[in-house]
From TrEMBL:
Record EC number: 2.7.7.65
An example Gene Ontology molecular-function term: diguanylate cyclase activity
One Pfam family, short name: GGDEF
Subcellular location field: Membrane
Descriptive protein name: Diguanylate cyclase
TM region positions: 20-40, 298-319
Location of the PAS domain: 339-411
Major subcellular location class: membrane
Gene3D superfamilies xref list: 3.30.70.270, CHASE domain (3.30.450.350), PAS domain (3.30.450.20)
Database matches in InterPro entries: CHASE_dom, CHASE_sf, DGC-Regulatory_Protein, GGDEF_dom, Nucleotide_cyclase, PAC, PAS, PAS-assoc_C
All copies of domain GGDEF, residue ranges: 500-633
Domain PAC: 415-468
Coiled coil found in the keyword field: no
Length: 633
């Protein structure tokens, strides 16, 4: 059969039946099924990536909370280190004693971020016997404060295999070190597993050398440290902690009974603190809510197949409506994704305020919790960005704008900033804002950002109080030795630059020890507090009053000051101290010995000025009266 005849036969068959109309539904069905399969594959990949991002964000947040808790515990040891530097070494050669450490522990504002801290143990450095032909010092464990009391016969810490590397690292670096996980039951703490923070304390000598004198050990119970972090995790997520890097050889230290099933989803993050490595693992349980999103692509694919079938059946009458149906499906899919993203981020920041910023319309969508934290009325509707900035403390405007600009203009796409807003009843409250860019246009410019808002005011106040205790005497709240020396160095630098004078007054209470011995330490403490108030009342606000010993005080008169005005202040201090003091039913009368030194006449540095003031004070004490000569005494 010729080619021409065949073409004519096919033409006749085509004209006899509506082949085009019959083939169009099958073409639509096939195309719809292929699109549904591709959409199912794409959405499943997107759901998997979204789940991984959720898990990474939850694990990172848990790691940050654990790091913040470790920072808070290390700040306590840093405060103890600063406290040790403020004391004059006593006759035993110790720079810190258990009574001082106990009073410091009672004054600490321990909060939820210090969970797991079982107390502080003071470890003295003592010479020991030779071990393996090497001179091995011997460290004896003191009482644990404010724990249940004495720990029994203290062990030789250098024979504790798990604690020895931490002691060695702390000794060599001079910084806080962490021990591996160890059994705390030998410390009689009632806890089976934990670790120890080690802070070395050195004693400095006039020749510039220093010697290790003691350690401060802070045992931390792992269960008490990690349980609050686990309680903050969304339902279906659990934490495990390994001692070391990786998951093969290092033992699991929290929780001891958690065993993951084969094929169970998990994520890991490494933590390094004080020379110790940890691995934090996040396990996903079957009841984790976002896992249900993995089944949504299948439902979406089935719905797509069903829609393809319906479209194929209605193709004859709805051929022109295909474009409108696709546009509607795209809008519905986009709205569904935006809702899922907003809800997922709300789950990550449970308990915090959530905000959603549409950069194209410059519109904010916020939750009621966000409005409550920012002090925005619910009746006022949704705020705009320009309306939010006036609510922020003026000193935080520059930092907030800079962080937001860095995030938008080619930054990592995430930002985190702390700022203050007006609190109820006056004052300011600290907040933590975090966010990330979730949508960009074809050119990479950001279109949409979502984030959370957290209340961190309690943590900031606790950090400020710990910082204050590290720089001030806990009993009198005057500047301690380290802080007073820092202020004196600043004043001397200013005086040298502008050629001004300044005064240094040394005050020593007479007959304080008999009062302390007869009436007790409680009366002695009240007496010191009353004398501190009198000293502060005798000087200007720009002057500095510090306590450098048991009953010794230093007063820095910032320049310019003349010798006559300095003598007047010294006489005022002498007279105020000599006034009768009523403590309850007890009436006391004390005197003091005062020594005055002037810069630059009596000394040009801290050491010479203190020595001149000390000589003048002892001259006054020998004279039995206030004696202020022309050479500073």
């Amino acid at each position: 059969m010729s080619l021409r005849r065949r073409l004519l036969r096919w033409r006749a068959r085509w004209r006899r039946g509506p082949h085009l109309a019959q083939g169009l539904p099958w073409a639509i069905l096939l195309l719809g099924l292929m699109l549904s399969l591709g959409l199912w594959s794409h959405e499943r990949e997107e759901a998997e990536q979204a789940l991984q991002r959720d898990l990474d964000a939850a694990l990172h947040a848990a790691g940050q909370r654990l790091s913040h808790r470790l920072d808070a515990l290390q700040q306590v040891l840093s405060a103890v280190h600063a406290l040790a530097q403020t004391q004059e070494p006593v006759l035993t050669g110790r720079s810190l004693d258990e009574a001082r450490l106990g009073r410091f522990m009672e004054a600490l504002p321990l909060g939820a971020e210090h969970a797991g801290l079982e107390g502080l143990a003071l470890v003295r450095w003592m010479p020991g016997r030779a071990v393996d032909d090497k001179a091995s010092p011997r460290a004896l464990l003191g009482p644990l404060l404010p724990g249940p009391g004495q720990l029994g016969q203290p062990p030789d810490l250098w024979r504790e295999a798990l604690l020895q590397p931490a002691l060695q690292r702390a000794w060599e670096s001079g910084q806080v070190a962490l021990s591996p996980a160890l059994d705390l039951r030998s410390w009689r703490l009632g806890r089976s597993l934990g670790f120890v923070l080690v802070q070395p304390l050195f004693r400095s000598f006039p020749d510039g050398g220093r010697r290790l004198e003691s350690w401060v050990l802070a045992p931390v119970a792992l269960a008490a440290l990690m349980d609050p972090l686990q309680a903050q995790m969304p339902r279906g997520l659990s934490l495990r902690l390994f001692d070391g890097e990786g998951l093969q050889d290092p033992p699991q230290i929290y929780p001891a009974a958690a065993v993951p099933a084969r094929g169970q989803r998990h994520r890991e993050e490494r933590l390094h603190r004080g020379g110790q490595a940890w691995t934090l693992q996040l396990l996903v349980q079957p009841d984790y809510a976002p896992l249900t999103r993995l089944g949504e692509p299948l439902v979406l694919g089935l719905l797509g197949g069903l829609g393809s079938l319906l479209l194929a059946l209605l193709a004859w009458a709805l051929a022109g409506s295909r474009e409108r149906a696709q546009a509607l499906a795209q809008r519905m899919t986009r709205a569904l994704r935006e809702s899922e993203q907003r809800w997922a981020f709300a789950l990550e920041g449970a308990g915090d305020g959530v905000w959603d910023w549409d950069m194209r319309a410059d519109a904010l969508v916020t939750t009621a919790r966000w409005k409550a934290l920012m002090g925005w009325s619910l009746a006022a509707g949704e705020p705009r960005l320009v309306q939010m900035l006036p609510l922020v403390h003026p000193d935080d405007h520059v930092q907030l704008r800079q962080r937001l600009r860095d995030c938008i203009q080619g930054g990592p796409g995430t930002f985190e900033v702390e700022y203050r807003v007006r609190a109820e009843g006056g004052g300011w409250r600290w907040l933590l804002a975090r966010g990330r860019i979730v949508e960009r246009d074809e050119g990479g410019d950001p279109l949409r950002m979502i984030g959370t808002l957290s209340d961190i005011d309690a943590r900031r106040q606790s950090e400020a109080q710990i910082h204050f205790l590290a720089r001030h005497d806990p009993l009198t709240e005057l500047a301690n030795r380290a802080h007073f020396s820092e202020r004196l160095q600043q004043a001397l630098a200013h005086a040298r630059r502008y050629r001004e004078s300044l005064g240094l007054i040394l005050v020593d209470l007479d007959r304080f020890k008999p009062v302390n011995d007869i009436h007790g330490h409680a009366v002695g403490d009240e007496l010191l507090q009353a004398m501190a108030r009198r000293l502060k009342a005798a000087v200007r606000e720009t002057d500095v009053v510090g306590r450098i010993g048991g009953d010794e005080f230093l007063v820095l008169l910032c320049g310019p000051v003349s010798r006559e005005s300095a003598r007047h202040v010294a006489e005022k201090i002498y007279n105020l101290v000599a006034q009768p003091l009523q403590l309850g039913d007890l009436s006391l009368e004390l005197t003091c010995s005062v020594g005055l030194a002037m810069y630059p006449e009596d000394g040009e540095d801290e050491h010479s000025l203190k020595k001149a003031a000390d000589d003048a004070m002892y001259a006054s004490k020998r004279a039995g009266r206030l004696l202020l000569g022309t050479t500073g005494g």
